[in-house]
Here is the input.
Amino acid sequence: MSQPTAWQPPDGFIPVDTQLEGISVFAPRPAVVEKAAVATYKCPNCGATTRYDVGAGGVACEHCGFSKPAEVRRVGRAADEFEFIVETVAAAEHGWGVALQELHCDQCGASLAIPEGALTVTCPFCASNRVNIRQAPSDILRPRFLIPFKIQPAELRARASAWLQQGWFHPPELSASAVLSHFTGIYLPFWTFDCAIQAQWKAQVGYERTERYYDASSKDWKTRTRIDWRWEDGQVGLHTDDLLVVGTTHLSKLILERVSQFNLSELVSYSPDFLAGWQAQAYNIPLANAWEDGKATLRERAKDACYKDIPTSHVRNFSMAADFQDETWRFVLLPIYLSAYRFEGKVYQVMVNGQTGVIAGQKPVAWWKIWLAIAALLSPGVVLGLVGLVTLIFGGIGVIPLILGAVLLAIGGGLSLMIYRQAVQSEAA
Here is the structure.
């Protein structure tokens, strides 16, 4: 009688660890993912390190003049989008595809991918020199698309100088200084999201009604407005295309919102060529967290749409349920020039949109100018009010100047509050 052959697992299965004693468990052999070759950028003519040149639209050598256009395709808003499934994320490429180091700032915690051999000792986010260089991580998702820099670095000084001169309440020596003489071009991480939203709302809606009534005190018929409340509900459908959510926490969101009006129709397929000689930041807000931030923004948009669906402004006890459908995402890099400068011991951050040239940032305030302006705005009302009060006490006709003083004081107070808010926003943006 022949001995039974030992059982063998099917092809492609391997044993895996198990805590069940005496039982063997087999699982499919994991696929071997081959890492893409990391590109290095040396000039084929002279061997010098090349970098991406904004004007040439490709990799160029500053020593011998060699240049090669970037091999990319323009995809615009038709760029591929991905579903929120595990397989999509698992199949995505990782790393930058180019040899990079990572600059890490010990003061603000920012990390930045920089070209190998780059000599930099200052963090572009906070102007600190407490930085160290380490190997760039290779486990981050690789961006699929980006918008190349269009604004030339040589244009930045003139733009920054003109921007510093704007506004009357800044220190006069600020526009004459060279605090914004250096900008760092950085590709920042952004997530884009598309989705459809079905929002169901329910609320008490009030409708105005005019009624006549008899006023016993005046013995006359008058009219008054009543509001009739009733429960109503409705549904609003919205479609969102390319909602941008920044993937980093090391920048001022207020400043970024002012400069992040990008034209996504200029998206191109990602190529490591664009990072040759330039800097890029890896995301520290992962996909799931970014989507939660995006949904919070979209819920507010849906809420506004629901209020617009209600035919009256009288609304109370409002509630809404938002159903998100057909969610898709992209990971892209967008161009920003960043500068952090110190002025009188404080750090201020400035950004320039690398595609459009829009500039925004923080500027110090000469508060003595603010207080003088507020005093000048309030003084006429105060003086006129005091004159009216004195003449009223001593039997003069002080009612008219007293009323005029109150009006001027109210106007001056409103203007003063507006100026004060602008000044605070300039420093705290």
